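Note to self: the last two entries modelled the partners one at a time, which told us nothing about the interface. This time every component goes in together.
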Amino acid sequence: MSIDSQFVHKMWNDHELSKMVEGGIPYPMLSDAGGKVGTVYGVYDEDAGVETRGRFIIDPDGVIQAYEVLTPPVGRNINETFRQVQAFQLIRETKGGEATPSGWKPGKSTLKPSINLVGKVWEEWKTKQAFD
Amino acid sequence: MTEKSAIGCARPTGGPVGEEPKDVGIPVQQTHKETQTMIKVGKKAPDFVAPGYHNGDFTSVKLSEYLGKWVLLCFYPGDFTFV
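The predicted structure of the combined assembly is written out below.
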């Protein structure tokens, strides 16, 4: 979503993005002229008249599980976004029975929060797991 | 999801997804300051409708029509920007 019209979206997709992604952008490119939606989401920069790089993960109940907002010159890390979605999906599947510690990614061990884990996280999770 | 008809301007519906707007009579412009505080993790996302371009057609998207699915909502400064 940006403040550009759907007409400009079409031009950008047809003339540039379709040369980066075969078949063009597969999801809807939304237009928010005037930044009304961006204002509600807190990402509309009134001075510049544009929207900052806001990213919101919304679950099947419509609940915002995560968001990240960057100023325009720095691009996003889509792998980190997918990792977060996968983590939130796992939490949802286990109904909160599992939690994903720092550095978790699919295939790595989770924590099972309970009274027995209090003070014992150091046994289950090693600092290097945050970085590998 | 997306539909071809009824393409208007993008606007927040004034309430969270899946719920009726609370202050129906108040223009959206006057509720901006209040609704801005609606963004919190663990809370419902503000619903909106917005025109767009998808699969070669102009469409209209309402966020609440995606209930039941995971949604990644991304804002960016502008088309043809470099990053």
